[in-house]
Each structure stands twice: as structure tokens, then as C-alpha cells.
Amino acid sequence: MTLLVNTNMTALQGQYYVQQISDQVNSSIEKLTTGSRISSARNDAASVQLADLFDTQLTGLTQANRNANYGIAMAQIAEGSLSEINNNLQRAYQLSVMGGNRSLESSDRVALGDEFKTLLETNNLIANNTLFGSINILNYESNEEGFLIKSRPEPGGPQTVTTGNAILTSLFGKALNSDNITGQMLSLVSINLGATGDLGKMVAAYMLINNQSDAGVAADALLTGTRTGAISTLATNSAVQLDIDEMNTLLVNELSAQTGQSAVVTGAAGAFTGFADTDVHSTIGFSDQQLNQIYGFSTDTLLDTLSGLSTEVTNQRSRLGAEQNGLLSTIRSNTNSIVNIKDARSRVADTDFATETVKLTRNQILLQGANTILSQATQTPNIALSLLR
């Protein structure tokens, strides 16, 4: 046996093993306290990269679910407002059918018209106040695909609502040639006329379209009087005024004044066509190259229009419902992916407590033994002193 004093190899080896076991004990304690098997890249560089990729996926999918929930919330708000708008349209439809009852008096029709107008104004209010944060959902204008709901015309913008071949130009209006209406409503004029005896009252609106240079009005027959007139060659942006004073019912054919019937006065292309009623004094002003039609009360067009609007609102509600279902499906799919990715990340990065506890116990026992051996190894040089005695 070689006895060395300057170099105690036994003590050096014992010190080395004590250091190694001590590092393993510290690593096990860190893993058990943090729950992570790779708290730093030095633990497992490849697993750290995988764990980071999993973390990126989890972050994206989690935020995607939040975004989908925001979309569902927005769709629910819009669907609720559209439901109330549709209820108002149904009530307006009922009022329109009620207005076709000839037994109603003028005051009754005025009341129906007031409620009808209030319903449309309420729909506008709902559309303008349906917000998600600061975003106006129903009247939001964007180049992206979406839905846009407007319940009545507004100045300066497109002024027609198309449902099939029918175009809504006024609350009580029917286009005599609806397929040819291609312009924009420049002004919507409400004419409040009092009772006109047995012949009822007239509600009219006017539409200016196309680019024509001629317009005219002619009377084929008058029940009383001999007044006829014509207007032609309208210059661009010029103003022409037609006065009809004390005109009786205007008829194409000779009819009795007591029948209460009114007839359409037809004209050539670009003609001023309209209804007249008993003892009506009116002044009509217009400025354009062509005045296409004057519309009278027409229940069938109003009902068709309201039915079309209600159908459109219902279609939008169905579309919103489908969008909500699609978003819910996306959330379920993302949630399933999140669960699977978390499971994969857990296998890569999380601590297996059972395995790590066994390692810690083993290393602690080895560390205690190594410390004991190291303590004895440091005493080996003392044997040399006994040789000197």
C-alpha cells in the first residue's frame, strides 16, 4: 500500500463523487419544487425547444377561443336587435293589412300611419344603437363581407330597398313600372291632405331618375272644366312648377263623380304621370331631367315590401345563428387541440414526481454515504504520523 501525504487520492475521489451526487440531489429538489423537468435549457435542450413550440400553439389557440367568444357575443347582440326589428316589421305588416279596411275613417288611417311611422323610427333607433363596444353592428359600413341593415332611406345615400322586382319608394307607393327604376330618391315628400269627402285621401311620393330632356303632362278628359296642360323640354337642373287649381277627378274614361274611383293619367316616355282627386289644390315642384312616376296608395306593394324586409331580417338572423354555431364548433375544436397539446407538453416538460422522488431518495442516501467515506479518507495521511513516532 502506497502512503502519500501531498496527494490524497482517496479523498479527491470521494470529493468528486460527493459533488456529483450533490448536484443530482439539488436537481431533483428543483424539479420537485417547480414541477418542471426542464427548468432551464441545460436540463434538456431538445425538450426545451419542443416545449416552447407547444407554448406558442397553446397561446394562439387560447386567444383564438377568446376571439370566437367575442364573435359569439357580437352575433348574439345583433340577433337580439334583429329579433325586435322583425317584431316591429310584423306589426307594421298587420297595420298595413288593417289599413286596407275601407270601413276605416280618415282619423283611423291617420292613427295607423302614425304608429307605422313610429315603428320604422324605432327600427332606425335600434339599428343605430346596437353597439359592440364602440362598433355599430347593424349600420357598420365596411368593404368586408358582412351584413348591413337599414330600415328607411337617409339623405345623400342610396335610397332604394330592393326585394325581387319590387322597389320600396314610399310607405304607401307602388311603382307603375318598377323594373325600370334605376336612380336614387332625391327627395321624399310627405303630403298631408285633409278629408276629401267620399273619395278619401291621397298619399304620394316622387322619384327622379334617368337622364331625359323631355317631360310632359296631359289630361285626356275632365269631369268638369276644360283645363289641359303640357310641360316639355326641361333643361338640366331647371325648376318647373305645375299648378293644379280646383281640379276635379282626372279620368282616362268618362266615369261618374260619385264612384270615388281615380285613374292613372298615362303619358309618353318621360311624362309626368299621377293621380288627382276631387277638389285638391296642390303645388308640385321638381328639378331634374325626368320625373318618372307619382305613386298612389297601394296596399299590395306595401305588404310585399314588408314581407320582403321581414324575410331579409329573418335570413340575417339565420345567418347569425349559423355563424354562432360555426364559432362554437371552432371553440370545441380548439379546446380539444389545447387539451392534446397540453398533454404532449406535460409529457415533455413536466416532472414525474414518482420517478423523481425515487431518484432524490437514492441520491440522498448516496450523498450521506459519500460524506462518510470522504470524512474517513481525509484521515488517511494521519497514518504517516504514526511512522514518525
From TrEMBL:
It comes from the Bacteria. Gene3D superfamilies: 3.30.70.2120, f41 fragment of flagellin, N-terminal domain, Flagellar export chaperone, C-terminal domain. Keywords: Bacterial flagellum, Secreted. InterPro entries: Flagellin (IPR001492), Flagellin_C (IPR046358), Flagellin_C_sub2 (IPR042187), Flagellin_N (IPR001029). One of its GO terms (molecular function) is structural molecule activity. It holds the Pfam family Flagellin_N. Its main location: secreted. It is found in: Secreted; Bacterial flagellum. GO terms for cellular component: bacterial-type flagellum; extracellular region. Residues 5-139 form the Flagellin N-terminal domain. The keyword Secreted applies. Residues 308-388 form the Flagellin C-terminal domain. Flagellin is the subunit protein which polymerizes to form the filaments of bacterial flagella. Belongs to the bacterial flagellin family. This is Flagellin. It comes from Oceanospirillum sediminis.
